Amino acid sequence: MPQVQPKVRLIQYTPAPEELVALAAKLCYSASDLDDLGEGVAKKDQSKFIARLMDMGHLSPIEHASFTFGIEGVSRSFLAQITRHRIASFSVQSQRYVALGDDGNGFDYIVPPAIEALGEEDAAEFRRQMAEMDAWYQAWRKKLGSGEKSNEDARFVLPNAAATRMLVTMNARELTHFLSLRCCSRAQWEIRAVAWQMLELAYRAAPALFEDAGPGCLRGPCPEGGKSCGKAAEVRERARALKRQTD
Ligand SMILES: Cc1cc2nc3c(=O)[nH]c(=O)nc-3n(C[C@H](O)[C@H](O)[C@H](O)COP(=O)(O)OP(=O)(O)OC[C@H]3O[C@@H](n4cnc5c(N)ncnc54)[C@H](O)[C@@H]3O)c2cc1C
Q1: For the packed helices 189-205 and 232-246, what is the interaxial angle rounded to 10 degrees?
Q2: Cα separation of 189 and 150, whole Å?
Q3: The CATH number, out of the four listed (3.30.1360.170, 3.40.50.920, 3.30.565.10, 3.40.50.150), of the domain defined by the range 7-91+164-246
């Protein structure tokens, strides 16, 4: 019964995303025709164009750049949250076509850090519960016959802790919005941990596009009002450190 950790990869993204966004800005704000645009935008001007768009809140040009992440070792609870982001595109491992724990080791699952922090006895109890649920799941699969028809019903006894994997594609505007909500300390720990990894990967790929990306408190006072974590200074330092180490 393998306990798993989240893994996040930036699988692919629009080639030269910053140049593409700068080209879109150039088209909007100059008399350039397509031939002029074909000459591109000098590297040094790209950041200026992008900063101006961000300042003005003219965000549709950044929708031209897309980023595809592979995410695994996350729970079905994570899945329920990330798929609320409607502008993103998803491909998720099927629980109908793929039988979990078919190797005899049981399904993969995530143990919440707060449960691990209770100590080994409690963590072992959690793992025992996972093993018990796996036994229920395998028993129902056997009783219902093999294949997708049995998987689709047997999975009803699986917990939110069961691991899943997915590809997620977001354009830079949606990704920025997602990072703003999910890097915030108010977001649940699992999606927050993944969001910070996505921020790091996106920043490494396109630093000018994601210069200010992250929770709202990076761009001004904390927007969470009475629900603020009160740790804006720490959060800002975390983002600065991430960007320093990536530069
Ligand atoms: C801390 C936290 C707690 C949460 N708690 C709960 C909870 O208790 N219960 C719950 O159900 N959800 C909860 N959510 C999920 C939340 O309500 C949103 O569904 C989720 O964050 C997706 O946000 P979004 O709609 O802005 O993003 P996206 O779906 O990615 O949309 C991006 C933006 O596009 C625009 N947009 C997209 N679709 C429409 C539309 N149909 N009409 C108009 N504009 C649209 C909006 O401007 C939107 O902000 C929580 C989220 C967070 C971060």
Answers
A1: 40
A2: 33
A3: 3.30.1360.170
DSSP state letter for 49: H
Q: Is 141 an annotated catalytic residue?
A: no
Return the residue whose CA atom lies nearest to atom 30 of ligand 1. 85
Residue 32: pLDDT band by 50, 70, 90 thresholds?
A: confident
For residue 229 and ligand 1, the question of a CB distance below 6 A is answered with no
> From atom 20 of ligand 1, which residue's Cα is the shortest distance away?
84
Give residue 82's identity as a one-letter amino acid code. I
Ligand 1 center to 177 CA (angstroms): 10
Joined tokens for residue 57: 């809140």
Residue ranges covered by each domain of the chain: 7-91+164-246, 96-157
Q: Is the pLDDT of residue 154 over 80?
A: yes
Mean pLDDT (the chain, rounded): 94
- Report pTM: 0.95
pLDDT at 147 over 90: no
- pLDDT-based confidence at residue 23 (cuts at 50, 70, 90): very high
Query: For residues 231 and 246, what is the distance between their CA atoms, to the nearest angstrom?
Result: 23
Separation CA 74–CA 98 (nearest Å): 16
* 177 touches ligand 1 (CB under 6 Å): yes
84 lines ligand 1 (CB under 6 A): yes
Nearest-10 crossing angle of helices 43-56, 17-29: 70
pLDDT of residue 161: 98
Q: Report d(CA 37, CA 47) in Å as an integer.
A: 17
